[in-house]
Amino acid sequence: LRPRSLRRATVPRAVAEPVAKPSSNGASPTLAGWSPESWRQRVALQQPNYPDAKRVEEAYTEIKSYPPLIFAGECRTLQDRLARAARGEAFILQGGDCAEAFTQFSANQIRDTYRVLLQMSVVLMFGGGVPVVKLGRMAGQFAKPRSADLEEKDGVSLPSYRGDIINGPEFTTEARVPDPFRLVRAYNQSAATLNLLRGFSTGGYAGLTRIAQWNLDFMQNSDEGKAYMDLARRVDEAIQFMGACGLDANQPIMKETEFFTSHECLLLDYEEALTRLDSTTGLWYDCSAHFLWCGERTRQLDGAHVEFMRGIQNPIGVKVSDKMDPSKLVSLIASLNPDNVPGRLAVIVRMGAAKLREKFPAMIEAVDEAGQIVTWVCDPMHGNTESCNGFKTRRYENVRAEVEAFFDVHDSMGSVPGGVHLEMTGDNVTECIGGGSAVSADDLNSRYHTHCDPRLNAEQSLEMAFYVASRLRQ
Ligand code: PEP
Ligand code: MN
């Protein structure tokens, strides 16, 4: 295997400066015709049919008057981190619920998912030897695209559940009516979640001297829990040694960590209402999260989502399945990152191991040929969904096989694996089958809590981190 530094990075020689001088409406010259509402001239898929336009206007106006959830400067920091990941100098760990829910909202739930993400990042840093960019699918991951507009059950047909920001999951006529004031509740829940995440990140909880205390109770006796504790002890020893050498454990780098938020940019009324002009740069940022991605179902080149996303200056992502043609991918990248800014765009591939081995090399080749800079991220969840005993599930072995294929393809192409994107939780759920903890098909009905797609539980997530670390070390 070639060492990382000798890999042919998908980074072209001449690197464009970040967007040039803004014009009077705050848009860069490459953003001709763009405004926060220009998406309204295009076809917007996956939007709810609200029964009352006046109430939509009221909810929109209310959110528009609220403060931004994030600050544009944080987005620029994240973009710098993602550019490092594109060069193989950092690795992205993006994870959280498929869909956050109003009814599953508590400090403990937020803390447990955050804690597993911290544990995983320690495994990747210590085991894989790279800085880890922590990006939660948290504090705003509410809207869900659906394959079908209607859901059938026992001969009854109702509009599909589209995430708590739109309608309710209960299978009743009332719950499924889209309610625009759910936007306001989602904003408030996001603000409260983000507040706690910021507190954990800078208030001492995430300090490197606390690594051994992050292990979850129910993990203590599992293989993953033990492997983690073993690693934590080695980190403690290293910190003690560095302390003896004179390292000051009170420095911010020892006590704080960077943590960013992300969600799918799907519900465009909400995203537009939170899009604000940054007074520092005069550019538009979608202040609902640090990072937004465009889903597999809404990434049409001439569609409303691509139109909206091309203009916001946050770092962004786009999901790509095997259905994507390499030359179309190049056009889409050109549209979303016309100035070829490093770290601006992550391409999140999700197609299952077999298709990834078959189709992904041609995509890397085409993007490389075009001289485009992207951060390649592996989502091993969405190409591996299956149905079992009436539950939507995923097999750990298939998820792992896709991550394996992702690293293998990059090894053979000399390109850079930039990160992983996981649906996961710190809860002890039984939603995905397999892994060392051996959740079986019969266990699915025991603790199946997700409102949408099945998530890796804490043990499965940690097991995945150990696998990724082993690949980063090679
Ligand atoms: C998701 O991330 O939950 C999702 C719906 O993904 P995709 O757009 O890749 O299907
Ligand atoms: Mn999902």
TrEMBL record:
Q: How is the cofactor bound?
A: Binds 1 divalent cation per subunit. The enzyme is active with manganese, cobalt or cadmium ions.
GO molecular function terms attached to this record: 3-deoxy-7-phosphoheptulonate synthase activity
Binding residues for Mn(2+): C98, H382, E423, D453
Major place of residence: plastid
User: Which intervals of the chain are annotated as region Disordered?
Assistant: 1-34
Q: Which reaction does it catalyse?
A: D-erythrose 4-phosphate + phosphoenolpyruvate + H2O = 7-phospho-2-dehydro-3-deoxy-D-arabino-heptonate + phosphate
Which cellular component appears as one GO term in the record? chloroplast
| InterPro entries per UniProt | Aldolase_TIM, DAHP_synth_2
What's in the keyword line of the UniProt record?
Answer: Amino-acid biosynthesis, Aromatic amino acid biosynthesis, Cadmium, Chloroplast, Cobalt, Manganese, Plastid, Transferase, Transit peptide
Enzyme Commission number(s) from the entry: 2.5.1.54
What metabolic or biological pathway is this protein involved in? Metabolic intermediate biosynthesis; chorismate biosynthesis; chorismate from D-erythrose 4-phosphate and phosphoenolpyruvate: step 1/7
| Broad enzyme group | transferase
Q: Name one GO biological process term.
A: chorismate biosynthetic process
Instruction: List required co-factors.
Output: Mn(2+); Co(2+); Cd(2+)
Pfam families the record matches: DAHP_synth_2 (PF01474)
Subcellular localization: Plastid, Chloroplast
Family, similarity comment: Belongs to the class-II DAHP synthase family.
Identification of the protein by name: Phospho-2-dehydro-3-deoxyheptonate aldolase
